[in-house]
Specification:
This protein is α/β, with parallel strands linked by helices. The chain has 23 helices and 16 strands. It has a seven-stranded mixed β-sheet, with helices on both faces. The protein has a three-stranded antiparallel β-sheet with strand order 11-8-12. Helix 6 crosses helix 7.
């Protein structure tokens, strides 16, 4: 919780956590397997809940998965209090009644001092696309194909014809054309809930604050590391202007306007409590991080809304050198080692935040044999699923307490290793055997590789890249043996 501490707020000890609307349960199961927290969650979709329970059974982690509606879940009296509640995107895809049920669960079941993570579509970034989304939804409802995949393709084709007519609104809002082009690249599962969901709501920060007010929630900060670094996203004049606004709701609304915000990831606390400067710095120094990639692969640049920034090599190189062993190091330890190089605590905190935002660093933890076993069992289950389809691109990581991105083919190479195969050529053959069993072939730049030789050659290349660039990191993270 580096973000909350940097803002000077107390963070509770997380013992129990809840996810509302967990989908297929990938995130909740990975966090349950990789941490020392007892998790619970609910999702109304019975098929998704069944899949999520299979993941839970595989890991044997402490997680309870319910198939209740939000109304049913809000009415339960056997849940107790949670130190953390996570809601990812759900507020945007349910009706107002269910939004109120979620607010009631937060009011009733989030402990005093507890943290809420809440992400949702917001203004003004979504404003230009609302008329197009309504047309897509109407087309699907009135003329859509009963087959979901074909129905989405038909609706996108209709929308493209509309944009090509170069109407006045399209010319007034050129972002629509770019967004439509981007939609063509997304998978249909994402498009189905983002554009074709029955309930779809864009929520301003002010309205979210109003919704959460009865639960006594205080807004603390955005969860995205890079969005906490103003200089990456705002001009100096904009930063100075925001500093003159004391009201939180107005300030965040103005920030969203300046940044053209489309999606918010917020941390709220029930009864936020400020720390003294001493307690804040002590808590920050105890935070532990680890490098999640090779040291030499980290570029000293960071992309913000305004431009790509060059990072100060005199600060970032020494910080990265400390983390180069891919093992956990605390911020306090880093501060001590860099004292002679005149790198300050504030510089280290900004560097760690930006590197975490880039995905180069991740919070780290000490873990025991139980966590290791839960992660290994869950990961093997996920890897077995990868034989048939590209189901999940994350594995549980005992080092970080969360998930690490691992592609389908890297998962198959890990499975090959577990089957006693030690060389990249053997891993490639193993992966190709799995594809053959399901009559699948590789597709490169839209072109299908037709022959066995072409597919094996490509898999051989990927296996060699995996061995050179990623296997050692996964071993240090406790994922690979």
């Amino acid at each position: 919780m580096l973000q909350l501490l940097r803002k000077g707020f107390a963070v509770p000890r997380f013992r129990r956590a809840l996810e509302l609307g967990f989908g297929e349960g990938v995130s909740i199961n990975i966090h349950a397997a990789a941490g020392n927290i007892e998790w619970a969650g609910t999702d109304f979709n019975a098929t998704q809940t069944s899949f999520a329970r299979d993941l839970a059974e595989a890991s044997e982690a402490r997680v309870k998965l319910y198939n209740d509606s939000f109304a049913e879940f809000a009415a339960r009296d056997d849940l107790g209090e949670f130190d953390f509640i996570g809601i990812h995107g759900i507020m945007s895809w349910i009706n107002h009644e269910n939004q109120m049920h979620l607010a009631k669960i937060i009011e009733k079941n989030l402990a005093v001092g507890g943290v809420l993570y809440n992400s949702y579509n917001t203004f003004p970034g979504w404003a230009p696309m609302i008329p197009m989304r309504d047309i897509l939804s109407l087309y699907s409802e009135k003329l859509g194909n009963s087959d979901l995949l074909q129905g989405i393709n038909d609706a996108l084709a209709f929308a493209q014809k509309l944009v090509d007519l170069d109407g006045l609104y399209t010319r007034q809002q050129p972002v629509i054309k770019a967004r439509l082009e981007g939609m063509q690249k997304h998978d249909h599962v994402y498009l189905a809930h983002e554009y074709f969901n029955k309930n779809w709501d864009t929520i301003s920060f002010a309205r979210m604050a109003e919704l959460l007010a009865p639960a006594k929630m205080d807004y603390v900060c955005q969860a995205n590391y890079l969005e906490l670094v103003d200089i990456l996203n705002l001009s100096r004049d904009q930063i100075e202007f925001l500093a003159t606004i004391r009201d939180v709701v107005l300030k965040e609304s103005v920030r969203d306007f300046l940044m053209g915000a489309q999606f918010r990831r917020d941390y709220w606390v029930k009864g936020a409590r400020k720390l003294s400067a001493i307690d804040r710095d002590d808590a920050l120094r105890r935070q532990s991080f680890a490098l999640t990639c090779r040291r030499d692969s980290v570029e000293l640049t960071a992309k913000g809304l305004r431009s790509v920034f060059n990072l100060n090599a005199d600060v970032y190189n020494p910080v990265l050198d400390i983390f180069a062993d891919n093992q956990p190091h605390t911020i306090g330890e880093t501060e001590e080692k860099l004292r002679e190089k005149n790198v300050s605590l504030s510089q280290i905190l900004e560097a760690v935040s930006i590197l975490a935002g880039k995905g180069s660093l991740a919070p780290a933890q000490e873990y025991d044999g139980k966590i290791q076993r839960c992660c290994q069992s869950l990961n093997e289950h996920i890897e077995l699923l990868a034989r048939a389809e590209n189901t999940m691109n994350y594995l549980a990581c005992p080092l970080t307490g969360g998930g690490v991105s691992v592609s389908r083919f890297d998962q198959l190479f890990l499975l090959a290793l577990k089957n006693g195969l030690r060389k990249p050529g053997q891993w490639a053959k193993f992966a190709w055997d799995q594809l053959c069993r399901t009559r699948q072939k590789l597709v490169i730049d839209g072109k299908t590789l037709e022959t066995d030789e072409e597919n094996l050659a490509e898999l051989q290349k990927r296996a060699e890249d995996f061995e050179r660039d990623r296997l050692a990191i996964l071993r240090l993270a406790g994922i690979a043996k």
